[in-house]
Amino acid sequence: MKIQQGLIAEFEKQSYTQIIFPHTKTDWSEYLEEAELTFINIINAIRKYQLCKIICYDVQKVKKHFKDTSNILFIQYETDDTWARDTSALCVQNAKEQELLNFTFNAWGNKFEATKDNAMTSFVTPNARKCDFVLEGGALETNGAGIILTTSQCMLNKNRNPKLTKTEITKKLQEYFLAKEILYLEHGYLAGDDTDSHIDTLARFVDAKTIMYVSCEDKDDEHYRELKLMEKELQGIAIQQNFELIALPMAEAVYFKGERLPATYANFLFINDAILLPIYGTKTDEKVIKIFRNYFKDRMIVPINCSILIQQHGSLHCVTMNFTF
Question: Residue 1 has what pLDDT?
Fold first, then answer.
């Protein structure tokens, strides 16, 4: 199928996936070996289907983790952290060609040091067009047909582009991504999330007409009210846009050092002919695996335990970036 003009949907055919390998100077240092194992599992799953580019603090050290390096490209660059979804370039199809866009990354509103992360795209993909706008890849979802879904809590947060109004931000998003419409969700969050409610933790396009979203049915769960309000918003969007909705169960609560972690099944990753699905070693895992296998008949569903990733408040989609270029 010919890719339509605009931000390229993740479910389209891909060229490669980009990932940043953890190292001692990242927040993974406390449990680095466990984190490395999870990243290795993700990389090995990706490389069965397509090229995986690994941004490495030390190429020779990272190479030693792989007996077979086929379908892997190693790139040496030292990052502040490992959230490739938010620090990598975004792929856009315009009228004539595909283009990479390089946005400013300020660590989700200057919450952390991000100088090296912000400079990464210029080093790794120097052909990307520099855009004077703060934006993270996890803040956007597209159906590949002119619709972009995001959250007001993140996109309109004054810790990103404080001098711009909602109207101005909307216009910029439409121009950058050649979008017909920008849809903002006003509700929905996950405890332990540093991103101010990235859409890729809450609701995802799985094709041009279908959204999978996190649903909470436990009235005693702290997320119940907000996620029910989000569900109502999505139902309204579905009626307006003629979309289908598929509910994903809220992951069973996971805690680390007394803090609830942002475990979410919405943070899955499309690759060619497969989907990598984050699981957390909880009772709800099997239910979600079944939902995915029933819906995606033409893709292999590959569950990957991401319990270690949520200890740093992200998950599988957050540590990867898809490229169609």
Answer: 55
Residue 203: CA count within 13 A, CB half-sphere: 33
Torsion sign across C-alpha atoms 92, 125, 198, 113: negative
Give me the residue spans of the domains in the chain: 6-323
CATH 3.75.10.10: does it fit domain 6-323? yes
| DSSP H or E run through 300 | strand 300-305
For residue 246, how far is the Cα from the chain centroid?
18
Calpha distance 254→261 (Å, rounded): 6
Q: What is the pLDDT of residue 78?
A: 97
Q: What are phi and psi of 283, to 5 degrees?
A: -65, -25
Distances (CA, A) of 92 to 177, 223, 316: 6, 34, 22
Provide mean pLDDT across the span 71-80.
98
Which residue reads 């200890």 in tokens?
311
CA–CA distance, 141 with 182 (Å, rounded to integer):
10
Per-residue HEC secondary structure of 143-184 comes to CCCCEEEEEHHHHCCCCCCCCCCHHHHHHHHHHHHCCCEEEE
Element (H, E) at 248: strand 244-249
> Considering the chain, what percentage of its residues have pLDDT values greater than 90?
97
- The SS3 assignment for 82 reads coil
Phi, psi of 202 (to 5 degrees): -125, -45
Mean per-residue pLDDT, 147-166: 98
Q: Specify the residue for token string 């709800």.
A: 284
pLDDT greater than 70 at residue 319: yes
What's the pTM value of the predicted model, to 2 decimals?
A: 0.97
Cβ atoms within 10 Å, residue 270: 22
**Tens of pLDDT, residues 227-281:** 999 999 999 999 999 999 999 999 999 999 999 999 999 999 999 999 999 999 9
Kindly state the helix (H) or strand (E) to which residue 52 belongs, with its residue range.
strand 51-56
Q: Is the distance from CB of 264 to CB of 214 less than 8 angstroms?
A: yes
